[in-house]
Input
Amino acid sequence: MWRADITYLQLENGVWVYLSTVFDDQTYKILSQKVSKHMTSKLVSHTLIESLKKNKKPEYLHSDMGSQYTSSIFEHVLEGHEIRHSYSQKGHPYDNGPIEAFHSILKREFAFQTRFTSFEDVVLKTENYIHWYNTERIRIAV
Output
């Protein structure tokens, strides 16, 4: 199963940007990520499409019930690839625990320790961190 979610990152000038990620439960890796200035259904759809370009499609994708994930644009991408969509129950954020845990690790190990001077800086540094996370970081469970 794949999981999808969005988290917030802050530039040093106080501007917020949005990191969309797709996580694979089988490999404990981030399959794709995109950073955007806007939190939209296009952002999460493009992140999913990038995952599908490089990986075998899952039977299910799990997300929360945010408007980006319940949008017709996102549902159309899922339907077009014959992927079933499961949602976290309202008030149960731990249903999406694996990707929430990744975002927590990303913030503790990286984002809270890093100054992002521009949008391009956060994109580059985030890509580098996720590459390190996927290829070099020691994991307890794999």
Q: What stands out?
A: The domain at 2-136 is CATH 3.30.420.10 (Nucleotidyltransferase; domain 5). The first strand starts at residue 2 and ends at 10. The chain has a mean pLDDT of 93. Strands lie at 2-10, 16-24, 29-36, 60-63, 84-87.
